[in-house]
């Protein structure tokens, strides 16, 4: 530093001998005026670094503006990019929604003889995907189609057991066993008679 150099020269005699004690004394005296505190230096250094970064950022913005031609052109490019992103997002969401509709409609029309034909009659504008993932408004439309186009749907399977089927089957099995017992001469007479009496009390098969 220049100020220290001047002090050292001041306290050096003609023979080149330095009066170190006096030099240090004067250096300590002038230090507050010439030396920046560490914390102040760090703050200044950070400010300088930030300033340089800001200058670079502004330079880049200026270069971008130059490439764009003008602020108006840059604004137009920005708006065009935003519009393109918005359109892409809308198309993506619509595609996902239609995929969910397709899956729900296919499942709802699983018993239709011509599902492609029936699916075309579903008004998708009246459909809505609920929070639980189900499609609102679909069941009512499918119900209406089944009422209007009964011949184009397979009969619903109720899963019910025909009335008295189990009873008849059980009776048939029991009758066979009783007949077998009644005609088995190896069985005791009392058992054969009981089997015949039981057969006589059972209703006749239709």
SSE arrangement:
Elements: H1 2-10, H2 20-34, H3 38-68, H4 71-108, H5 115-119, E1 128-129, E2 135-136, H6 138-148, H7 165-182, H8 189-201
Antiparallel strand pairs: 1-2
Describe this structure in words.
Strands 1-2 form a two-stranded antiparallel sheet. The model is unreliable at 161-170 (pLDDT under 50). By secondary structure, the protein is an all-alpha fold. Among the domains are: 1-36, no CATH class; 98-152; 165-201. Helix content is 68%, strand content 2%. α1 runs antiparallel to α2. The radius of gyration is 50 Å and the shape is elongated.
Q: How many strands in all?
A: 2
Mean pLDDT: 75
Which structural class should the secondary elements be placed in?
A: mainly alpha
Tell me the Rg in angstroms: 50 Å
Main sheet properties: 2 strands, antiparallel
The fraction of residues in strands falls at: under 5%
In order across it, which strands form the biggest sheet? Answer: 1-2
């Amino acid at each position: 530093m220049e100020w220290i150099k001047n002090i050292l020269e001041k306290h050096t005699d003609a023979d080149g001998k330095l009066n170190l004690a006096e030099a240090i004394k004067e250096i300590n005296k002038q230090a507050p005026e010439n030396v920046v505190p560490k914390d102040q230096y760090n703050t200044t250094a950070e400010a300088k670094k930030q300033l340089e970064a800001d200058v670079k950022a502004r330079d880049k913005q200026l270069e971008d503006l130059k490439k764009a031609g003008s602020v108006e052109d840059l604004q137009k490019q920005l708006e065009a990019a935003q519009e393109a992103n918005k359109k892409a997002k809308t198309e993506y969401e619509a595609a996902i929604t239609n995929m969910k509709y397709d899956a729900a409609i296919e499942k709802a029309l699983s018993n239709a003889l011509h599902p492609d034909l029936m699916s075309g009659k579903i008004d998708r504008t009246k459909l809505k995907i609920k929070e639980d993932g189900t499609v609102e408004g679909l069941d009512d439309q499918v119900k209406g189609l089944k009422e209007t186009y009964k011949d184009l749907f397979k009969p619903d399977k109720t899963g019910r057991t025909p009335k008295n089927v189990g009873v008849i089957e059980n009776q048939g099995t029991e009758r066979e066993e009783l007949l077998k017992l009644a005609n088995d001469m190896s069985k005791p007479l009392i058992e054969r008679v009981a089997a015949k009496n039981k057969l006589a009390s059972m209703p006749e098969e239709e």
